[in-house]
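Long-time lurker, first post. I've been practising inverse folding by hand and with some scripts of my own, and I keep getting stuck on stretches where the structure tokens seem ambiguous. Below is the full token string for one chain I'm working on. Before anyone asks, I'm not after the true native sequence, just a reasonable design that respects the backbone. If someone could post their per-position residues I'd love to compare against what I wrote down in my notebook.
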């Protein structure tokens, strides 16, 4: 079921009909297994109706505005798990990556994965966008170097410590991080928010607003995490702005998370 959901997300860029068809099969499997209940199915029906209305009456400005607002409401609800009826599966339960790391849990998030299908209703260029920025190779090299540099800054500030790991749940972590964390979050903050804002303000300002929004999403983890996430958001936003490809931003996001787990305390250093 989770593999078919990931495949549906990959197909979404190339064949929307095939992706929706595979999603339908996945939804049936999820409903049978108890991951989705009738409230989640009702939400999916509402999502289909919204997509139909947008497609059928998309030349009406009022319809465009109304569906855009609904897209934002649905996407935010899915992002913070406020939509009822989704019973995400916990695949890592209060595990510690190492003796110096704080314990954490991780889920396969069906609701968060649906973000892409929701956002695509309002933003057809969610995966690929035209860009006028042509950065030099050295700029890309600096952006790649910024990923470990940011983690080292977190070490200097005391939030992380060097600690290498190769946990038995590494594959689950990578799989979840790519498809149910990084892809969903980059679709929201780069593919949708940053791209939409860039339509009526300078692209650099749009990048920083999107990065700050990404940082604010981590407010529950404290100010240090907010700052760290916002700086990471700048890296991901630059990857999107320079490439115009959502998967490039996803690669940077997932790469940072995986590097964090492999070589540093994850998700943070235990104190005391």
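-- Answer (accepted) --
I ran through it position by position. Result:
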């Amino acid at each position: 079921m989770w593999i078919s959901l990931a495949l549906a997300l990959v197909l979404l860029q190339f064949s929307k009909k095939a992706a929706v068809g595979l999603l339908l099969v996945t939804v049936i499997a999820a409903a049978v297994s108890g991951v989705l209940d009738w409230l989640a199915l009702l939400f999916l029906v509402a999502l289909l109706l919204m997509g139909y209305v947008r497609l059928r009456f998309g030349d009406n400005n009022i319809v465009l505005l109304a569906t855009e607002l609904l897209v934002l409401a649905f996407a935010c609800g899915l992002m913070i798990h406020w939509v009822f009826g989704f019973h995400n599966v916990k695949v890592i339960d209060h595990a510690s990556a190492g003796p110096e790391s704080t314990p954490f849990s991780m889920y396969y998030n069906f609701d968060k994965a649906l973000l892409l299908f929701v956002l695509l209703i309002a933003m057809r260029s969610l995966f690929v966008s035209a860009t006028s920025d042509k950065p030099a190779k050295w700029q890309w090299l600096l952006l790649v170097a910024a990923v470990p540099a940011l983690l080292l800054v977190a070490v200097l500030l005391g939030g992380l410590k060097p600690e290498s790991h190769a946990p038995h749940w590494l594959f689950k972590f990578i799989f979840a991080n790519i498809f149910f964390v990084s892809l969903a979050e980059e679709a929201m903050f780069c593919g949708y928010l940053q791209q939409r804002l860039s339509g009526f303000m300078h692209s650099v300002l749009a990048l920083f607003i999107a990065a700050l929004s990404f940082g604010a999403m981590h407010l529950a983890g404290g100010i240090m995490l907010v700052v760290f996430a916002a700086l990471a958001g700048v890296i991901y936003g630059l990857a999107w702005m320079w490439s115009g490809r959502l998967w490039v931003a996803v690669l940077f996001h997932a790469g940072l998370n995986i590097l964090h787990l492999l070589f540093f305390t994850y998700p943070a250093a235990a104190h005391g």
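A couple of notes from the structure itself: DSSP finds eleven helices and two strands in the chain. The chain has a mean pLDDT of 93. Happy to go over any region you disagree with.
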